[in-house]
Specification:
This protein is an alpha+beta fold. The protein folds into 2 domains: 115 residues, 3-Layer(aba) Sandwich (Rossmann fold); 234 residues, YVTN repeat-like/Quinoprotein amine dehydrogenase (Methylamine Dehydrogenase, Chain H), CATH 2.130.10. It contains 6 helices and 26 strands. The strands form 6 sheets. The chain has a 5-stranded parallel beta sheet with strand order 2-1-3-4-5, sandwiched between helices. Helix 2 runs parallel beside helix 3. The longest helix is centred in the middle third of the chain and has 15 residues. The radius of gyration is 22 Å and the shape is globular.
């Protein structure tokens, strides 16, 4: 059976998770801090790491970055209590495979571990007349006290979404519409050639949608293999695709297969790309913004440093917009020598708050995706409210 490394500074939490996994036949190793976890990962044959983000000294994000240098291919699941984690897309860009939020259920934990460690099996149909399988019983994981209330259920999100759609459709500046999406781990959105492109970092795929009679119709899915999509931009018949894990930008043809041409290495973990008609803009996790010429080496023509360390950027005619996924804040920057902040905006969406995982503009409307939701949102400017925070 696969061997799981549990990294958490609370012995009770390690014991609770260990018991759940050992009862299902998994081998378990434990570490109470970052250095011990990295030592275990280097010495032992670990198949998956369950990594708490709040650790003494070296926190989970730092452990994650160092772990990727030791074993780049081992799945790492980030675990945290509510409000302590950046968005799923944020930690993904540092190399996480998935994210669990405390308190989680036994079934959730086991499902995640199985998904990342065991080969997928083709489903088999039950024989004719066989009774339906009983529904699985959900057991709460015995976690230490003080982890807060459970997050609101999916049913509440769906009810709120339906209500929001009915209430806001037809209004102009307060326009709000929800579109079902084919995936729920969207890290980038792009309008190109009257089509909406969405990149899914977990499935490592790109989905191409076309507006048809007020809906979004899925036209094509591109499965890219081992590419963790953190950003892409279409420019002059090519697609430039960022992979924050590998610290690369790939150049591909905008053809029916997105044929690979070549790859460029960069020092930072690139979290977003945008093409403004002249330059390819890139932004990394440290807030470094670069303007690249579309030449054979993607030569850097100018560089900036943004203090808000955004993980997404978009350039309009008169401003650069950036977004921080974990807070959902959008920043408007002047196009000066420092990309000075001209305004900070909050999204006043009629939905339970979800971390912002992707955004783009089209025709004065903002298009959004939220972490873990198989939905895309279109909103008018009135739902973008200026704030001092």
């Amino acid at each position: 059976m696969p061997k799981i490394l549990i990294v958490d500074d609370e012995p009770d939490m390690r014991l609770a998770v260990k018991n759940v996994l050992k009862l299902r036949g998994y081998e378990v190793a434990e570490a109470g801090d970052g250095p011990a976890a990295l030592d275990t990962l280097a010495r032992e044959n670990i198949d998956l790491v369950l990594l708490d983000i709040r650790l003494p000294g070296m926190d989970g994000v730092e452990v994650l970055e160092k772990a990727r240098k030791i074993k780049n291919d081992v799945p790492i699941v980030m675990i945290s209590g509510y409000g302590h984690i950046q968005s799923t897309v944020d930690v993904m860009k540092l190399g996480a495979s998935e994210y669990l939020q405390k308190p989680f259920e036994n079934a959730q934990l086991v499902h995640t571990v199985r998904k990342l460690t065991e080969p997928k099996k083709a489903p088999t149909a039950p024989p004719p007349g066989a009774p339906a399988a009983p529904a699985a019983v959900k057991e709460p994981v015995p976690v230490p006290r003080g982890f807060g209330l459970r997050a609101a259920g999916l049913a509440l999100v769906l009810v709120a979404a339906v209500f929001a759609y009915k209430f806001f459709t037809g209004l102009h500046s307060s326009y709000f519409k929800i579109y079902p999406a084919a995936s729920s781990n969207i890290s980038v959105l792009l309008w190109d050639n009257k089509e909406l492109w969405a990149g899914d970092w977990l499935e490592q795929a790109i989905y191409r949608y076309q507006p048809v009679k007020g809906a979004l119709e899925l036209k094509k899915k591109y499965s890219l293999g081992n590419v963790h999509i953190s950003g892409f931009a279409a420019a002059e018949g090519k697609l430039y695709l960022a992979d924050a894990w590998k610290k690369t930008i790939e150049e591909r043809k905008l053809d029916d297969k997105l044929t690979f041409i070549k790859s460029f290495n960069f020092p930072g973990r690139i979290s977003s790309l945008f093409y403004d008609g002249e330059y390819l803009w890139s932004c990394d996790s440290a807030g470094a913004v670069l303007l690249h010429k579309l030449d054979s080496g993607l030569t850097v023509a100018a560089s900036f440093k943004l203090s808000n360390r955004p993980d997404q950027i978009y350039k309009t005619k008169g401003a650069l917009w950036s977004a921080v996924s974990s807070t959902g804040r959008l920043y408007k920057h002047k196009l000066d020598d420092k990309l000075s902040i001209a305004g900070i905006y909050a999204l006043k969406l009629p939905l339970p708050r979800q971390p912002l995982s992707a955004f783009t503009w089209k025709g004065g409307r903002l298009w959004l995706a939220g972490d873990g939701t198989a939905e895309l949102y279109e909103t008018g400017k009135a739902l973008l409210v200026k704030t001092d925070e």
